[in-house]
Structure formats: structure tokens, C-alpha cells
Amino acid sequence: MAKTKISEYDSTAANNTDISNINIAEGCSPANVNNALRSVMAQLKDLQAGLSGDTIPLTAGGTGATTAATARTALGLVIGTNVQAYDVNTVFDDVATTFTAANSFTAKQTFTGSSSVISSKFVNALEGVTIAATAATGTINYDATTQSVVYYTSNASANWTVNFRASSGTSLNTAMSTGESITVVFLVTQGSTAYYNSAVQVDGTSVTPKYQGGSAWTSGNVSGIDAYSYTIIKTGSAAFTVLTSQTQFK
Predict the structure, then answer these.
(1) What is the pLDDT of residues 217-246, one digit of tens each?
(2) Within 13 Å, how many C-alpha atoms sit on residue 192's CB side?
(3) Which of 17, 50, 162, 182 has its CA 20 to 30 A from that of 32?
(4) Cβ-count burial of 31 within 10 angstroms (0-12 exposed, 13-18 middle, 19+ buried)?
């Protein structure tokens, strides 16, 4: 076999009698020695540049792979489990991580600072808004994992209960840890007869919120939009403090 790349070399020295079809057996031409050395250098460069198709095994300090995906598999690194996938335009430096392209996280991420360093900074950020031609009435499930703001554009037709949960299949108690909070907003369009949020639940259990100003509201505001803001703080297992306010916009 013509030894055109390093993986074709033989571990038995006596079996290596050519390099890229250049004869290097005993008694070969002196010129062959020069040409063989040049060929070896070219093969080494191809290996270093990833052009030869050869791989370096794990036992020799390599990854045993020719692509990033197979290298992660060989090294036991699973995307989303013990390594995070980032866009190629993501820039890393020793001080901070800058996201220069859209990155999507499918699990809760924790950015840990210190007593002297803030863990994150956003120059700008978008929040998900659900806009629905719906009238507020009855019990309304607010799924906190899919939106930060809900905007009902049809006039409210009765007082309503808002029930906060992570999603239809996940409770907010499961999604949050003790000592965490989440803030969401509910925008409700009002007609000539105003209604209001008369009860609050978390995961289907009633919670008495703490109202801005100290008093529970007893009505909405006609012919405008009432904005309800809720800050939900998990204080223990299935235990929540809800801080809320009502603001009129017209």
C-alpha cells in the first residue's frame, strides 16, 4: 500500500518501504530520501490542517473524530446536558460572554456573578407578548413559560380569576425554586362597563395578593386598558407571595 497519509504507516519499521510511492527501501536513490522527507512534511501539514481524513485517537490526546458533532460524542459531551450549543457568531472573552446572534435556551440558565460582579447585562431585550381577541371572564390560565405579557383586545365581559402556572403540563411550583420570582403583565381592554380581576390563583390554589397602595381594587376603569402587573415570589414549596397593581391606560 502506498503510504499517502500517516494512518497508513506501519508500526513495524521494516514494513515502511515507501512514502507516497517514493521508494525508501535499502539501497534507494539518495534523491528519494530528500523527496520522502518533503512528502512526510506535507502529510504532517495535512494532518494538522484536517485535510488528510486521519483522526487522532482519544488515547493519544485527540478526539477520534473529524467533525465537531462526532468529537462531542466521542468525548461524552451531550448538547443541552453537559455542554451548551452556541451560534458560531457568539463571541467569548475572558471577561464576559457576548451574544451577537440569536441564541435559544431550552432550559433555565443560571448566570452567577459574585458579591462584587453583576451576573448579566442586557443592552436591550424583547419580551414575548400574546395578543388575543378575547374578552376577560371566568378563570383565565396564564402560562408563564410562553409569554411575559398577555393582551386581551376584546372588552371584558365579567370579573375574572387569573390562575398562574408554568404551562398546561407544568406547575409554577415545579418551574420555580424557592427564592425566585417572576413578573408578568395582563392587559385587559374595558368597554363602557368595567370589570376587574377579582381573584388570583397559583397552580389552581387561591392566593391573597398584596396590593400596591394597600387596598384591593373593587372595580376596573371604563373605556380603556387596565394593566395588571404581578410579581410572583416563591417562598417555599407551593408557597407564593404575589405583589400586584392595577394601572389605567386610555
Answers:
(1) 999 999 999 999 999 999 999 999 999 999
(2) 0
(3) 50
(4) exposed
